[in-house]
Amino acid sequence: MKDYIQKLQEEHCLTKEEFTALLSCQDKSVYDYAREQAAKIRQQIFGRDIYIRGLIEISNHCKNDCYYCGIRRSNRRVSRYRLTHSQILDCCQEGHELGFRTFVLQGGEDPWYTDQILTDVVRDIKKNFPDCAVTLSLGERSRESYEKLYAAGADRYLLRHETASEEHYRKLHPDGLSLQNRKECLWNLKKIGFQTGAGFMVGSPGQTVEHLAKDLLFLRELSPQMVGVGPFLRHQDTPFADQPNGSLQLTLFLLSLIRLMLPKTLLPATTALSALHPDGRKLGILAGCNVVMPNLSPTAVREKYLLYDHKPATGLEAAESIELLKKQMKEIGYQVVCQRGDYPQSE
């Protein structure tokens, strides 16, 4: 198995069969070896720097009914909200004062946020904070919509593909949503010029190691500038309420493999890791991650954006705790930097 990891480090890809064999392995020494190699690679490229993103959850309305998501359309127990233009700018102002130089506007697929509303928001953020990057994570939209958002000044777009297997996709989503369209959106985003992010859940219901191998091969093909990977976490008001959460160790192993496969990618240590383990964020960084995304949303709405049960929204997950975050990263030999943290350009 260590030979496969060495091959991945040197060639940045494996066959589906090799990935499947590697992901079937549960040998701690193999996990440790992958983590050590991933840490070396991220330090060669990024040094000891950790990039911070200010996460602003602009809406928990969603037109979709994905089976795993706590803000799915049919969940009547959600207290819905939308942030106004001025509220979003206030969050950016607070974040800028705290040292954030990237803002991530995330939300459900909410038709209320038209292209006009979003382009106005993006333009004002770029006007008021010209030294900052704007990342959007607002789901599937038309190519024309993406082009307008890019023209308005948006720099990056996150769109997890969730699974690269058609058969598995159908187990996670209702009719009306398609993996083909999801992938087409991702290719469109890359063609337009966005720094593009994809990703998937680890341990989602029905997932096999073969599915995970296909996810890795799709990421290699897409070659995104960002990859968001976190464990599946159940929500009590979804059809998957009784399903087990994803594995922390397997998630960390996959993060290390992704770092070896896509050495320059921007790889967040997600909030979901902290939901599984008090030191989840630290473990993610040690596994090869180089980005953290503290929450800049107004405190009154943070507990309303619950994609899964027991989502951390305070303490080290809160943007206002930036000094605690800096201390935590320093404890493991890393430093938080106040930079845009763009994808490294090829020499």
Mean pLDDT: 94
Number of strands: 9
| Backbone CA Rg | 19 Å
Shape: globular
What fraction strand?
Answer: 5-15%
Total of DSSP H or I helical runs spanning 4+ residues: 14
Cα separation of the termini? 32 Å
Strand-pairing-aware structural class: alpha/beta
What level of helicity do the residues show? 40-55%
Task: Characterise this structure.
- With 347 residues, the chain is of the alpha/beta class.
- Helices cover 44% and strands 12% of the residues.
- The protein is built from 14 helices and nine strands.
- The strands form two sheets. The chain has a six-stranded parallel sheet. The chain has a three-stranded parallel sheet with strand order 8-1-9, with helices on one face.
- Helix 4 (85-98) runs parallel beside helix 5.
- The chain is globular.
- The model has no long low-confidence stretch (mean pLDDT 94).
Furnish the topology, listing elements before pairings.
Blueprint: H1 2-11, H2 16-24, H3 28-46, E1 49-52, E2 54-59, H4 85-98, E3 102-107, H5 115-128, E4 133-137, H6 143-152, E5 156-158, H7 166-172, H8 179-192, E6 195-202, H9 209-222, E7 226-231, H10 248-261, H11 271-276, H12 280-286, E8 291-292, H13 299-302, H14 322-331, E9 335-337
Parallel strand pairs: 1-8, 1-9, 2-3, 3-4, 4-5, 5-6, 6-7
